[in-house]
């Protein structure tokens, strides 16, 4: 049941990300100063912000940025994780030792701190914050992939492939990756949720999206100042961050359980 | 109709609850209570040095008002009144000023306050090693100060300075103990020593400054409500940069007074009997966006005018500030009697903006709708110091960005901290900037618009951000500064302001906002009639 609901929410978000005008045809940047701070109504479903912009339109149009950051950051994290994980899992012992130590050092830093460090060096913005989030999630993926690789490496069918004289590329793509892929897919779904939260956190701190772009974290940050007077300015962007992260996480969990029981 | 009625009701409410500029708050008939600690939470940036001679910005002035004092002050009508100096006399040629000092005053480290101390302070401000900008610029006409006798200090000037007394009322020219000034700058920044009602006890960086009462205090300004030591035992001066948490702390009762109150919280607080509001716009310059006329595209006056015509400020001000701010059309604050306004220069008119840009050769448009010329986009860089502007102001800039886009301007808003912002100004890589400048009197025009203002002060800061270099304007400002006749002076300053406005160098927004919110149990808090900093000397708390 939760999987179905999560899927429905995600499908909605994907539609909002790809065809935002289908759901909210307005311009997310259009200002109407004299309509500022309007509470939710039939005309403005989620109310308006300090510049009279329609919050519903902004939240819907902000989906693309948030999902894109979430997916791209996860892809970067998994890509790097694959490289390091496979190197460690398949390479000679010294390479495994070196990579594992490096990963342990990176683990010593809390993920968000690593991301902040990266942004301090390369400057704020959507691109840097995406890379930063991707980088800081990579060690986790790498460790997971390494352990999966180690499990499969000595399996009889791989030995058989070796004896049959199959090349290393064949063994990797045909036997190793399909074995790792299932776990990876589940972890990635969970990861997208986390990446969305992190990217929003960075924008909230003023290190991600730049004003006036309709990014959820940035909207949350702008609304925070008015939280005592106009709750809807923070509630709705916050709701969408929670919804997307929860949907991705619950879907990931659901897939995980299904995989275990099958 | 309903909206109009609400607006009228809000205006009435404001009129009823707002005390006048530089007024004292919640007057009470009860006798003042001695003792207690007052918690003050400031939203301004934390100073890097507590000695306002060094650099010289508003955050320093805010806290320095509690422990440092000036030679003279100003009353609510704008007249100069005695403080550490009891009398003063200008020579007939205007080139020497004799100040008679208050006898029996000592600094809190025991050093006596005398004419030699005054000379040491002026020397400290003028010493390039100090790195002063505000004080340094204000004293640019003073060539030397000598001690005629222990209680008479003689200022010698290069040219007459009609603004000298106004300048001397400011915290950036406060008197500090010469013994303390002789220490290293690092030590003096940590714990400056003055004659004020409170003493700097400890500075916990990023957190708070603790101030304790000066029990031997004898030197209040002539307009203070009482004499002798302050009522409060101590002040806990906290740094709380986040405006929402600052207001929440005030509501929860963990702090007694906050500054830089957000417009929406001011409206809310006025409905709450436990809180009260003190409105004290800062003197000197109005809050304005300056257009850098030294680099393209603003070297062309048509493009400057086009930008100004394309910026819809009025709607933004009325919606974002809930009636707590009034639109300005002047380079000077409405607190300045000599402020001159020219509303017609700033009418919002997209058609006029489009015509001006066409005339200036910015005819083609990119696919995003921005104008271009010779392959360059009509792009404007706008660094915004998040420490110096409240969120409502940053929203205002976003709205200007949006309306200017219709005309084809691409504005890059770049929020940054104070030190990055200073760096952006230093490299002349900005087209637009909003920089507050507070100074008593119209002499601020000389600092902001004289071509000499494009040359950095010892601190590295230059104040003429629009980079106006007009010999006519320089001459007018020079004449105004030396004019002894008040009507002539007023007329010269008016002409100077007209030149600035008609040249489209600035887009005036409103007075520099300066709202204090306080618990109603706090009495006697007042904003100094000089630069509107809060004075806690007369304050007491009824718990």
TrEMBL record, chain B:
Its main location: other. Keywords: Signal, Transport. Residues 80-427 form the Solute-binding protein family domain. GO terms for biological process: peptide transport. Belongs to the bacterial solute-binding protein 5 family. GO terms for molecular function: peptide transmembrane transporter activity. One of its GO terms (cellular component) is periplasmic space. Residues 1-26 form the signal peptide. It is found in: Cell envelope. It comes from the Bacteria. Pfam families: SBP_bac_5. This is Peptide ABC transporter.
